[in-house]
Design goal:
Length: 363
Amino acid sequence: MRLSDYDFDLPADSIAQEAVEPRDRARLLRHAVAEDRTEHGHVCDLPGILEPGDLLVLNDTRVRPARVFANRTSGGRVEFLFLGPATGEGTAAWQTLVRPARKLREGECLDVQGADLQVRALARGVDEEGQPSALWSVELLDASGRALDEPGVEAACESMGRMPLPPYIRREGDGDPRHSTDRDRYQTVYAREPGAVAAPTAGLHFTSELLERLEARGVRLASITLHVGLGTFLPVTVEDPSEHPMHAEWYRVSDEAVAAVEACRDRGGRVVAVGTTSVRALESCATGGSLKAGEGLTRLFLHPGCQLQCVDGLLTNFHLPRSTLLMLVSALAGRERMLELYAEAIEEGYRFYSYGDAMLLLP
C-alpha cells in the first residue's frame, strides 16, 4: 500500500455543511460487490433493500457535548474539548484538547463562559517526540473551588457544552449551545453510552420510524459500543500506511451482540455493520472465524488484504482522502473500485463527510 494510492480530488462544495431533514432522506449509493452493480436511491429505501433475517449492527455511543469555552484573566478566550477522565493526576482530572494551548500556564484558572464554573490547568501533555502538545489535563471547579467528579463534569458538559463538530463543518459564531440544532442532529437516535468525541456518522441517517420499518421487514438489530476518539481525525502522514500509528478507541461487544450475530449466521442472513466503528468493534472480537464478547482498547487497522471475519456488508458515509477510514471501506470492495465509486458519487452530486450522504456495500 501507498498513501498516495488513496488520494482523490473533492470539490469544496461537496462537503456537507448541514444535515438533510428528515434524516433518512439522505441519498444512498448502493453497490453489490460480487455483481459489481451500482444503484442510487435514499436511506429510507433500506427496508426494500435488506432481506428478512439480515442483522444491522449499530454503535450506541453517545457524543459528549464537550466543547467548553473559558476566558483568561487577560480576556483571551480558550477552547477546551473534554476528551475523558485522565489518569495519573487524580480522579477529578480530565484530558482536554486546548486551543490555543501554548499560552496556558500550569495552575491557571479560567472562567467558563455561560456557567459559574472555572477550568484549572494542571499539566500539559507531550507528543511522541517529547514536544509540548495541545493536550492538557485540567479540573473543572464549581463556585466554591471544588473539583467536580466524573458525573459532575458529564452533567456540566450536557448543560452548557457545545457539540464537537469536525473542523470541516463551519458555523458562524458559537451561539447558545442549548438552542443549537447540532446538539440533536449530531447524535444518533439510539445513542445511549456517553463517551464519544465524534458521532458514528452512518448512524445519523436513521429515524425511529425507519428502524421500526426495518424490524417489521424482518431485519434484526443489535448494538455494540465504540467511543469514537480524537484519533479518528488524525491524518496519515507516512507514505507506507503500515507504519502509521493507529489510534486506540474503547469498545465493548456484549454477549447479546454475539448471540445476535450467531443467530444471523444460523438463519443464513447477512451481518451489516452501520459505520466503520461497528466494523472495528466486531472485527476486534473475531478470531478464527468466531466472535467472542469483549471490551477494551482496539488499534485494529483494516485495509485491502485484510479478510473480514464477521462483517458481510457496510453502511457508511463518504470519507476523507488519504485516511484510514477510506482504507477500511476499500477492504470490502477493493481500492480501485472504491475510488471509482467515489468518483461516481462526486459526479452525481453526493454530499460528503459527517453530514453527508451514505453508501451501502453488500456482498
